[in-house]
Design a protein that fits this description.
Length: 66
Amino acid sequence: MDNSQKASYHAGEAKGQTQEKANTMMDKAGNAAQSAKESMQNAGQTIQQKAAGAADAVKNATGMNK
């Protein structure tokens, strides 16, 4: 293999490594986004449950929950 072929080989190798790193980073970003989405959904559900509980407490306190 002459120097030109070696350089071409190493350039291709570097390109492949760069693509793999980019794919890994994109996967991590996607996982982080999914995790954030799930966290927000859980927070929303918790808030909704607490609001419903507070509304029931008010109804009970005012006698409207009969």
